[in-house]
């Protein structure tokens, strides 16, 4: 379970306009085990910055993050062991094959070669990567890179999974496959959080939705609760009402 409490992050202004940017302003939510929680918001809403604070890359200016009850500020290393992260920059090593990229992370987590081989086989099958697993990642399509980065993130069988816009740039079939995979993670009782600016995506997958606009949570709840909150006939109308604009919400 991941708990975000009153998170705030400001960046110093740069260039001509040196007004500080308030990227995240009092964001709180709970992502439960066995559920998929979606952060939905338009470009620049603060989703990536929020996720970076959850996965210990950035320190909040205020507020705190608890992962399975552990305060990230007090024991970041322990928290990292229980996290699988797909960052916004996928960052796969291009001279290594997909399999080597995945194995490298497994080794960093202290796994044995046999454990790495077994887990890689499971992930490669689930993510349908077998036909490119042993190719160097240089020249990979965006979808192949993303799959490699997801497998790498999950090599150590983490209990909590954080994915920044996982379906960005993926085709329809690959997206369908990935959705099925995220549902498997949920069925295994993991805590899954992902960000998206595509409402259909969030609506199709999430048990709980946290809507972020301009660094603030404008609403959160199950899809049904969000519909009830706005009185809207469908989720699309509810989202538009809750965000206050249609900008950036579509694929
Ligand atoms: N390192 C940084 N330095 C300065 N400003 C930043 C930095 N990181 C993020 N920001 C600003 O913080 C705000 C929130 O950015 P963030 O990347 O969290 O949004 P997002 O919701 O993930 O957007 P997108 O959907 O476009 O990826 C934006 O105005 C962005 O320009």
Question: Gist?
Answer:
This protein is of the alpha/beta class and 251 residues long.
- Tally of structural domains: 2
CATH superfamily of the largest domain: P-loop containing nucleotide triphosphate hydrolases
**CATH architecture descriptor of the largest domain:** 3-Layer(aba) Sandwich
Give the neighbour order of strands across the main sheet.
6-7-8-3-9-10
> Span from first to last CA?
29 Å
What fold name goes in the CATH topology slot of the largest domain? Rossmann fold
The succession of helices and strands, N to C, reads EEEHEEHEHHHEHEHEEHH
Give the class from helix and strand content and strand pairing.
alpha/beta
- List the bound ligands: adenosine-5'-triphosphate
Give the helix tally: 9
Mean pLDDT: 91
Radius of gyration: 18 Å
- Biggest beta-sheet profile: 6 strands, mixed
Tell me roughly what share of residues is in helical segments.
25-40%
Low-confidence stretches: none
Explain what this protein looks like in three dimensions.
With 251 residues, the chain is α/β, with parallel strands linked by helices. The chain folds into two domains: 1-82 and 159-251, P-loop containing nucleotide triphosphate hydrolases (Rossmann fold); 91-158, no CATH class. It is 37% helix and 24% strand. It is built from nine helices and ten strands. The protein has helices at residues 47-54, 76-81, 98-108, 113-126, 142-154, 172-187, 199-205, 223-230, 235-243; strands spanning 2-11, 21-31, 35-40, 62-67, 70-71, 83-86, 160-163, 191-196, 208-213, 216-221. The strands form two sheets. A six-stranded mixed beta sheet has the order 6-7-8-3-9-10, sandwiched between helices. It is globular and about 50 Å long. The two termini are 29 Å apart. The model has no long low-confidence stretch (mean pLDDT 91). The chain binds adenosine-5'-triphosphate (ATP).
């Amino acid at each position: 379970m991941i708990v975000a409490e009153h998170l705030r992050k400001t960046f110093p202004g740069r260039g001509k306009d040196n007004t500080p940017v308030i990227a995240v302003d009092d964001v709180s939510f709970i992502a439960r085990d066995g559920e998929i929680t979606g952060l939905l918001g338009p470009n620049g809403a603060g989703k990536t910055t929020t996720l970076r604070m959850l996965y210990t890359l950035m320190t909040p200016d205020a507020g705190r993050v608890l992962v399975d009850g552990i305060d990230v500020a007090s024991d970041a290393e322990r928290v990292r062991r229980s996290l699988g992260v797909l960052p916004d920059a996928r960052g796969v090593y291009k001279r290594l094959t997909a399999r080597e990229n995945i194995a490298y992370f497994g080794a960093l987590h202290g796994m044995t070669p046999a454990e790495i081989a077994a887990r890689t086989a499971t992930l490669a099958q689930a993510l349908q990567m077998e036909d490119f697993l042993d190719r160097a990642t240089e020249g990979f399509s965006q979808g192949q890179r993303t799959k490699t980065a997801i497998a790498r993130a999950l090599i150590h069988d983490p209990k909590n999974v954080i994915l920044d816009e996982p379906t960005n740039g993926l085709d329809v079939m690959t997206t369908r496959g990935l959705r099925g995979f995220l549902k498997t993670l949920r069925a295994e009782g993991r805590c899954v959080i992902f960000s998206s600016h595509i409402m259909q995506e969030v609506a199709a997958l999430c048990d709980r939705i946290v809507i972020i606009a301009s660094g603030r949570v404008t609403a959160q709840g199950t899809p049904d609760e969000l519909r009830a909150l706005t009185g809207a006939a469908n989720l699309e109308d509810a989202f538009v009402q809750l965000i206050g604009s249609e900008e950036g919400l579509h694929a």
